[in-house]
């Protein structure tokens, strides 16, 4: 069955890429005297309320079983709490463009987690793509490593955030298989993520400060409205229209937007090895996406 790629789908696709690519630098602007945990509570708490209000106005279902709520909680914990806490920690140590590039390897992690949790098979071609992506990441970071500026901690945070987001993707797939639609899934999961963040803030005795500077307020408003409310909604809408394999193509283009912004705002200058590494990462991801979901063609014998 062919899937119609309408103009509205193109708009959703482009919006997803732009909001995702610009969110990385906006998140960096949140690193002020306000704790990152508190900033995340403001961001996802407000975004969750907006999404649930839209869901209620749209008269979509808001009552679910306790098993579905477990999946919501898993998605919120990994996708909107753990992953973003680690991203903020990484952003304090390495450029946001490099974090976004590392984050794009979530497609490779998804392949492994699909085997473990969704009982899907994996082919040798997927392993080739994974190896190409991992090699590319090493090449991107090679200048810092060779100049004794390698930051293992920042890179470790970025990889851990990617793994956490991959676990969140598994929960999202499970929820969509049960017929849960985009708005309530995103809104409820963000609500759970906010609860987890609030619990973490309470246990670590975080202070609920607020920065009234134009930079902080503007970036917070941007993160709430565009990447959180609009970006996640359009992403899952694209996945619903085109399927997970085609919707995941956004992950190939988001890092390019983030790296372009990073080169302007953070002075990031890619070396020849970084360019080669970037090509290998994106190429590896493309290979994984196009081969993993390739249908088997039967021939008559």
Question: Could you describe the 3D structure shown?
Answer:
By secondary structure, the protein is mainly alpha-helical. The protein is 77% helix and 0% strand. Helix 2 runs antiparallel to helix 8. The longest helix has 29 residues. It starts with 6 loop residues before the first helix and ends in a 9-residue tail after the last helix. The N terminus and C terminus are likely disordered.
For the biggest sheet, the summary is: none
The N- and C-terminal alpha carbons lie at a distance of 25 Å
Radius of gyration: 19 Å
Beta-strand portion reads under 5%
Could you report the average pLDDT, rounded to the nearest whole number?
81
Helix content: over 70%
Structural class: mainly alpha
**Low-pLDDT windows of residues:** 1-5, 293-301
Q: Helix and strand succession?
A: HHHHHHHHHHHH
Total of DSSP H or I helical runs spanning 4+ residues: 12
What is the overall shape?
globular
Count of β-strands: 0
Domain EamA: 10-141, 154-289
Protein name: EamA domain-containing protein
Subcellular location: Cell membrane
Keywords: Cell membrane, Membrane, Transmembrane, Transmembrane helix
